[in-house]
Design goal:
globular, 12 helices, 5 strands
Length: about 240
Amino acid sequence: MQIDELARLLEGAIMAYGKPLSMQQMENLFEEDARPSKQDFRDALAVVAESCEERGFALVEVASGWRFQVNDDLSPWISRLWEERPQRYSRALLETLALIAYRQPITRGEIEDIRGVAVSSQIIKTLLEREWVKVIGHRDVPGRPAMYATTRHFLDYFSMQSLNQLPSLAEIRDIEKINRELDLADLDPEQAKSVALDQEQTLPSEDEQQQDTNVDMSADDENIENDTPIMRDENDA
């Protein structure tokens, strides 16, 4: 199959599927003896991406595969298609999610030690229900507390391919970026400033971030790729 024909096929498949389409799923569109090479698939995807350059959407690769996504600069208008207002999340939930993302794997007790306050069970429940985090095992200490890490769905939601694309702490502390990326645009300036100050106190320093992500991201990337726990309960074995 020619690259242009393959590009047309992949464009239709991605559009029809309605969620990220992985390379394996693309390969499964063909019988094994007629399957294009991975390089052919990538060349065809590049053709599709190039064809979207002057359009209102783009072909984006996220953790689960490729999808079409409306360009960010159109969101002020596109968002008006939905009557309900974007869901707002509490400062405590955002702090908890940020700590899990940057310090994973991490236990609830460790999050509480860093924040200095108890973590509500509802916060953990919300993060689990949204499939932004999951339990990947249990710490080998008394009580065997659950260890939390982010999921592939978390990466997809925030349009990332891997944890290495997490914004730096300097970017997170930018109030305008927080408002834009974490749906805090409805907060007034004083509230937004409060969120930024609180995150400065709870998030690790730049040096700590580099140390933690170098160690933990590789483990989580492997966990995401294989979708298996880092540690398993004896009951699960």
